Amino acid sequence: MPSHNIMKNYLRLEKKYEDRVKAIYHDLSTPALLARCMKGHTQNRNEGLHSKLWLHQNKAKFAGLNRVRFMSQLTILNHNLGYESTHFIAHIGFPSTAERIKTMEKMDKSRKSPRQQQKKRTTRRKESASADYQPGGFDL
């Protein structure tokens, strides 16, 4: 693993801030700390939380500030309290009706739809590329 002590620094900060940032950077990039992080094969403790958030809100699709805030709060509650034990929507007083379940399934379908469409396009491209050209396919 290359040492972070010999890396060039391109910071353009005032000197009083540069020293503070450098000290924090060197503390966070010590080989001992990086080795501890790599034991779990991740450097991000919030990775599980982030993946849950992206399940609710596609990160490649624009969403307004209020939607992002709501989904973030919902994800944090489910992450901290546990999805199965809380059933957040039922907990705040909304009954589990057939209509609500149908709506949630519809939302899941629309959320998953872009991924499925991309998968279909990729499959079609592979099929069309293989059908147009075949090595040795020009027997005279």
pLDDT averaged over residues: 73
How many domains? The number is 3
**Strand elements, count:** 0
> What ranges have pLDDT less than 50 throughout 5 or more consecutive residues?
none
Largest sheet: none
Give the CA-based shape. extended
Question: If you had to describe this structure to a student in words, what would you say it looks like?
Answer:
Residues 101-140 are annotated as: Disordered. Residues 112-124 have a biased composition (Basic residues). Residues 101-111 have a biased composition (Basic and acidic residues). The chain is mostly helical and 140 residues long. It has three domains: 4-38, no CATH class; 46-96, no CATH class; 98-129. The chain is 66% helix and 0% strand. It has seven helices and no strands.
Summarize the structure.
By secondary structure, this protein is an all-alpha fold. It has helices at residues 15-28, 31-38, 47-56, 65-81, 83-86, 88-91, 98-132. The protein is extended.
List the helices and strands and how they pair.
Elements lengths: L14 H14 L2 H8 L8 H10 L8 H17 L1 H4 L1 H4 L6 H35 L8
Main attributes?
140 residues, mainly alpha, 3 domains, 0% strand, extended
